[in-house]
Amino acid sequence: MTDVMRCCRGVVALALGFSALVVAGHNPDERAPAEQAPASIPEVLPRDEEIALAESAAPAHLRAKATVYVLDRSGFVLARQGSNGFTCIVNRDSPLGRKPTCYDREGTATILPKVLRVGELLMRGTPLAAIEREIEDGFRTGRFVAPRRPGIAYMLSKGNRDFSPATGKVRPFPPHVMFYAPNLTNEDIGSLGDGAGGLPFIAYQGSHGFMIMMVPDETANP
């Protein structure tokens, strides 16, 4: 079997496995419901742990020279100024979610400001519905702007934790890469929308949408 065939099989298996989790709503690593009561604000991790988790989103060769943000009691703060144009941060889009992400120059310029604002509002205890309204309003008024050209955001960490408000549960999300796809739909790209068959799919459809592509587990970061 060639390396290409092994890679493709790995992508398909990983995507189908994630689809099964979504459909079945089951994951052996999920905590019991009693442990999953939504927190009012995100947990602040030790600084070194937060930096390591943020860096784990990026390919190893980009980590040392990437800019890094960490979360504190007031929101995200700059931990290290980098020099390669990439910015690594443990994105929080809910009190329980943790999504290590490393944005390229375009994402740093356009998406990161939104991420920083969401973190600030979460640490104030602002309800998610109110945060969503502010972000939508921000894109409408020009406070936030969608990516202006194609680009990439790496999410290669094995520490991705996705919180579902619908189920109140946290589950891991496989390592993947995201390409900026403002206002692109699954129909536009002929995707089923769930990663089945190893196909890319659109997440956060709208002005700050992404096209997600899974990566084979064997190439994921440690």
Structure notes:
The chain has about 220 residues and is α+β, with helices and mostly antiparallel strands. The chain has one domain (about 5-20, about 35-215). About 30% of the residues lie in helices and about 20% in strands. It is built from seven helices and ten strands. It has helices at about 5-25, 45-55, 60-65, 105-110, 110-125, 130-140, 185-190; strands at about 65-70, 75-80, 85-90, 100-105, 150-155, 160-165, 170, 175-180, 200-205, 210-215. The strands form two sheets. The protein has an eight-stranded mixed beta sheet with strand order 2-1-3-4-5-8-10-9. A two-stranded antiparallel sheet has the order 6-7. Strand 1 (about 65-70) and strand 2 form a beta hairpin. The longest helix is centred in the first third of the chain and has 22 residues, at about 5-25. The chain is globular. The two termini are about 25 Å apart. Residues about 1-40 have low confidence and may be disordered.
Beta-strand residue percentage: 15-25%
Structural domain count:
1
Listing every helix as H and every strand as E from the N terminus to the C terminus, the arrangement reads HHHEEEEHHHEEEEHEE
Widest sheet: strand ordering: 2-1-3-4-5-8-10-9
Overall structural class, as computed from helix and strand content, comes to: alpha+beta
Radius of gyration: 17 Å
Strand count, sense and closure of the main sheet?
8 strands, mixed
Helix percentage: 25-40%
Number of strands: 10
Q: Distance between the terminal alpha carbons, to the nearest Å? A: 25 Å
Query: What does the average pLDDT come to?
Result: 82
Q: Extract low-pLDDT stretches.
A: 1-38
| Number of continuous helical runs | 7
Gross morphology is globular
